[in-house]
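Onboarding guide, step 5: your first structure request.
Type a short instruction followed by the sequence, for example:

Predict the 3D structure of this protein.
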Amino acid sequence: MGVALITPFKTDESIDFDALARIVEHQIKNGTDYLVVCGTTAETPTLTEQEKDEITRFVVNRNAGRLPIVLGIGGNNTKAVVEKLQNYDFTGVDAILSVTPYYNKPSQEGLYQHYAAIAKASPLPVILYNVPGRTGVNMLASTTLRLANEFGNICAVKEASGNFSQIDDIIKNKPEDFMVISGDDGITFPLITLGAVGVISVIGNAFPREFSRMVRLALEGDYDNARTIHYRFTELIELLFVEGNPAGVKSMLAVMGFIENKLRLPLVPNTIKTYEKIRLVLNQLN
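The system replies with structure tokens like these:
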């Protein structure tokens, strides 16, 4: 289980590095396998390039080599992504996660050429990230498999299409060492039974010990106990995304005392109704 770290903000919308330190330590001490920095859960569209660099360096230094770190570097301007890959200081970073280009709606050939350029430029292993609900474009299994077969440093795909037949097609036909990672907490358990290797999680920000245990039990074939944990979290996972990500997980972390419940526009906190539902379910889980 990797965790897509949130970016905690203070009331004045500055980055709350003390809260970020608490969250990083919470991950390291409770079973998370790797940290994902500056992914979409981190509200990266609202962060400046300087802020992204500050967050990355802070997490790298706080982590101090204890867990692998995956850094989100993506965009809809291929040239800009390539230039960043060629010039960035990747000290302390182990791989990159690169989302499909958003808004442009490239063809499958365009997606292939975009990632081919990234693979050629990247000094680190590359994890593809397919999330059509956010980007407006779905990378088909055929394109993912083409990239997996042609570029040795494209090591995995984070699949958040929710399309079981598409994901199953990738798992069935992928190279042996290519990894399929769930991009949706709610379907991680069934995807592991199909052959996925784990998840890049949102709920793991709050529950790293419990959710990573579910992943490990499923990977070990202990489906009964994994399923029990899976069902414990289904209602909470649904509440996490009912008003958008990361509003739900930030509400949860605020209830738990980790952060202030602050987002940057155009994102806003959950409504009081959803916030109270999350608080009630958390109390029941405890």
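Each response can be followed by summary notes, for example: The domain at 2-224 is CATH 3.20.20.70 (TIM Barrel).
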